[in-house]
Automatic annotation (TrEMBL):
The active site is at residues 78, 201, 203. HAMAP family: PdxT (MF_01615). This is glutaminase. Its EC number is 3.5.1.2. Keywords: Glutamine amidotransferase, Hydrolase, Lyase. GO terms for molecular function: glutaminase activity; lyase activity.
Length: 253
């Protein structure tokens, strides 16, 4: 099994390291033809506008869209979530090109600026049921997007309560409006067919359950799924050093 990691900008090294910890080769992808050598793709977090400009420069968008249409598993984290969305709002002037495929509306900087990054305990019943471990996951949100709407075929894997001062109504043609006196749950992780998306950064933690879950998606869609296995590498585990962030804890109000 070979899993590609889009390596234009952002936390692609951390994803490659997490895959290595699970005994899977992560292949750095920078050119369209490199997609032909991988079974699946991870689009990492980073600066989405910069990543879009680099992807356009390398003529990657047509190949990325075709990769998604072929039914190959693709996982987008943070900026990667924005890329996979069919619709995005809160973008910079002029917008940015999207890959699409995920039936949802994403707000690009729903949780604010870099200074408003935070950590939060997320309930992940499906991931915990399939991968074991505790019922929650400590999500790291860095200038994170939020999923405002999802289509009927999209499965919600995690959401987070949003305090009243952050509860907002967005549409592509409207500015932000405060929705005082209410509290909404903002979706932060979804799955739709061959697509997985998270608004947070699992690659920046030592918890590899999201990566394991994605690798099972890869196995389920692979022609040789019955003979594929994911082995643990003791040496890789010993050398793996996750990049941990000490961010403020998300306070519900």
């Amino acid at each position: 099994m070979a899993v590609g990691v889009l390596a234009l900008q952002g936390s692609f090294n951390e994803h490659v390291a997490a895959l290595r910890k699970l005994g899977v080769k992560g292949v750095e992808i920078r050119k369209p033809e490199q997609l032909q050598s991988v079974n699946a793709l991870i689009i990492p977090g980073g600066e989405s506008t910069t990543m879009a400009k680099l992807a356009e420069y390398h003529n990657l968008f047509p190949a990325l869209r075709e990769f998604v249409k072929m039914g190959k598993p693709v996982w987008g984290t943070c900026a990667g979530l924005i890329f996979l969305a069919n619709n995005a709002t809160g973008q910079k002037v002029g917008g940015q090109e999207l890959i699409g495929g995920l039936d949802c509306m994403v707000h690009r900087n729903f949780f604010g600026s870099q200074l408003q990054s935070f950590e939060a305990e997320l309930l992940i019943p499906k991931i915990a049921a399939e991968e074991g471990g505790p019922p929650s996951f400590r999500g790291i949100f860095i200038r994170a997007p939020g999923i405002l709407e999802v289509g009927p075929e999209v499965e919600v894997l995690a959401d987070i309560p949003t305090p009243s001062q952050k509860a907002v109504n967005f549409s592509p043609n409207e500015s932000q409006e405060e929705n005082a006196g209410s509290e909404n749950n903002v979706i932060v992780a979804v799955k739709q067919g061959n697509l997985l998306a998270t608004a947070f950064h699992p690659e920046l933690t030592a918890d590899t359950r999201w990566h394991s879950y994605f690798l099972k998606m890869v196995s389920d869609t692979s022609e040789d799924a019955s003979s594929s296995s994911i082995s643990q590498s003791t040496e890789d585990q010993k050398n793996f050093k996750p990049q941990l962030y000490d961010l403020p804890i998300y306070q519900q109000q």
